[in-house]
Amino acid sequence: MAAAVQEPGDDVQKILLTQGDVSENPTPIPDHVNKEMSPSVMPNAVGQSTGLLEEKLKESLRVDDNESTEYISPIEDPYTRAVKYLERYNVMHIFQQLTASLVFHRPEDPLQFLLDEILKIQKEKEATLAE
């Protein structure tokens, strides 16, 4: 939050933006405005006071004791869902293994080589599950 700083004898009001940063405001703000306009009564873009908006928000969020409320889980971020999927099925590990093998062997037909490697991985997985 910006704080106004007026030094005696200055025609320009300085506004403290962050710790140590000061910006000059060419339009001085009269002292009576700073005192009258506290955050609880400052009008917003629609002309309502912030306090009135807070009251309306609290009223809209009020739950009647007789009403049953059920928990609605938040929507999961698509990126997080994708990462969880990749981790669950070890997709990144498989791609890393395939890419390393492809670069190491440098076959004439890379697509066929990758298909053969995938089949080999699938047979190893089935053998492990059968044990």
TrEMBL record:
Q: Which domain of life is it from?
A: Eukaryota
Q: Where are the transmembrane segments?
A: none
- A Pfam short name: Tex55
InterPro entries to which the protein is assigned, alphabetical: Tex55, TEX55_DD
- PANTHER family for the chain: TESTIS-SPECIFIC EXPRESSED PROTEIN 55 (PTHR47110), TESTIS-SPECIFIC EXPRESSED PROTEIN 55-LIKE (PTHR47110:SF3)
Q: What is this protein called?
A: Uncharacterized protein LOC100370798
